[in-house]
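Friendly challenge for the regulars: who can give me the structure tokens for this chain first? No prize, just bragging rights.
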Amino acid sequence: MKAKKWLASGVTTMLIGGILSGCSGGSSGSSEGSGDNVEITLAGWGGNPSETRLLKEALDSFEEKHPNIKVKHEVISDQYMDVMKTRLIGGEAPDVFYLDAFEAPALIETGVLEPLDDYVTDEFNVDDFEQPLLEAFQKDGVTYGFPKDYSTLALFYNKKMFEEAGVEVPTTWDELREVSKQLTKDGVVGLGVAPELARMYYIAESLGGEVVKDNKANFGDEKVIEALQPIIDQRNTDKTAAQASDVGANWGGEMFGQEKAAMVIEGNWAIPFLEDTFPNVEYGTAEIPTVNGEKSTMAYTVSYVMNAASEKKEASWKLIEYLTGPEGMEIWTSKGYALPTRKSVAEKLGFDQDEKRAALVAGASYATVWANGVNLPTIMNNFNNQFVSAFLGQRPLDEALKEAEEQANREIGE
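First reply, four minutes later:
Bragging rights claimed.
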């Protein structure tokens, strides 16, 4: 979730200038012909060994179906967006690459991404994608990427602790707060919290406030503060919530696996982690309890995008079409490390009925995607810096967030 604002106006100008001057993509050579052999470059960050094998399987399948197209897969293991920025400026970017929704608005604005709508055929069936995930890569009705996978957030709860306390899985946030009181005992807190904007965004806007307004920070809004105050009170008044570091853990999944929290709100990534690291913990998942009577959750998604300067656009689209089509997506998401953005694939793989993943899949249709304009990195950093101080009881929430909003907007103005 860590990111920083890297598209200053000078960089934006350089990126647009690179496109206008006809910089070539990451693959050298002449433009493709209909029967020519062609090599295209696909870049992304690394994954675990199982994910690496699944991607290789999908790429092998693609090459088998398109014998004239060779895919060179490049893994950028560190400072991914910084490296991509530099290569886009220098005309050395890959033909196809990963793009996180969080970074998408800023990159779309530069003009370095190829609009994809004209490549799409009816058979591709755009309507099959979960709409909030697709819309994260659109601007003014134009699509610049198709989401390859995602995760929402769900409530993870310890079945044994719930049974011993004689409580039911909460369906509203008020119920969650009350249940947390009964579950907090013997060194265990009721709820593990990740006090950061990427996890708090949907709660912050639950009373009608806006975290971002006119591309500026707006989280000092009284409605936002009111919506977030119960999280602060649950830790400092009820003493029934804690962050992972409070109990000596690194993150929510570890806190939950160590059984130091009866509940956490985490994503799909926690499922294989718990299976591998804490296989004896009996747990269930449920949709996040409603906030102010409404269902809500966060979604984090990544797309495949095409370099607008690529000289291999036809082949590049074929790769995107396959990897985000039903067949390629089924291969990539088959083991459940990532969830398919196509509803048909989720149903075929049974994830919509899966004991652990059904709640995560259900949230995709109403999720708030972690993306909102070019200034979200700046807004996020300032929110996180001050929200934690309020969460730890060091200062009032309203004071912390209003100061953070002012600082964020000063930085945006500069």
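The CA atoms of residues 81 and 227 lie 33 Å apart. Residues 9-150+300-369 form a domain with the D-Maltodextrin-Binding Protein; domain 2 fold (CATH 3.40.190.10). Your move, everyone else.
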